[in-house]
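We were asked to recover a plausible sequence for a given structure. The inputs and outputs are reproduced exactly as logged, with field labels preserved.

PROBLEM: sequence recovery
POSITIONS: 98
GIVEN STRUCTURE:
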């Protein structure tokens, strides 16, 4: 593993740890779930999962996940992505010295 990958993973662990310790992680996850639910994304994903599952024989969770996951990521509304990213950016600016 390269030093840059190790450095990124270390930074990710540090940021994630601080988010969890401060309770910000839970607050951001709750807000994300609320916004996705309000936008209809959760219902859309549930519908997509059911339709995809009907076409799988045999039905295996890993296969279903592999087929639905790209749609899930691509269909998150841009405004929600931006709002969550802004929250994380604000947190980082408040927690880490430049």
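RECOVERED SEQUENCE:
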């Amino acid at each position: 593993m390269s030093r840059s990958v190790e450095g990124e993973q270390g930074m990710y662990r540090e940021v994630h740890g601080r988010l969890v310790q401060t309770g910000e992680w839970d607050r951001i996850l709750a807000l994300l779930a609320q916004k996705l639910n309000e936008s209809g994304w959760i219902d859309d994903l549930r519908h997509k999962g059911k339709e995809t599952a009907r076409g799988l024989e045999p039905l295996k969770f890993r296969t279903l996940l592999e087929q639905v996951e790209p749609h899930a990521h691509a269909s998150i509304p841009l405004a929600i992505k931006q709002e969550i990213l802004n929250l994380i950016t604000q947190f980082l600016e408040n927690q880490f010295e430049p």
